[in-house]
Specification:
It is built from three helices and ten strands; from the N terminus they run H-E-H-E-E-E-E-E-E-E-E-H-E. The chain is of the alpha+beta class. Strands 6, 7, 8, 9 and 10 form a five-stranded antiparallel sheet that branches. The protein has a three-stranded antiparallel sheet with strand order 1-3-2, covered by helices on one side. The chain starts with a helix and ends with a strand.
Amino acid sequence: MTDPIADMLIRVKNAQMARHETVLIPFSKLKFEIAKIFKKGGWISNFSKNGKKVKKYIEITLRYVDNQPKISDIKRISKPSRRVYIKVDDIKVVRQGFGSMIISTPQGLLTDKEAKTGKLGGEVLCEIY
């Protein structure tokens, strides 16, 4: 697999479209941090790390509002073939404030709003709305 973050995002997106309650994703620290941001933003209900040693995985419980998926779309912005970096002045609002952008900064993974208040730029991983 060349892009594990894109794999995670597509698994979540496909599970939401198929109306699954949970989705399993192979564990990594970066994916775990992305799941924390999803939880903090209210995009998912819950998540947990399960398994032992090599067989660790993240179990994400998806969130639905009025029988509609909370996540309507996820887009991978920075890819291994094309990295996208953004300065703090260039951070724009995603979907008139209804979406969020996940940015990898020197302070760790932050949402667009947190990066703007912390005056930090970095690599744009994805947009979620």
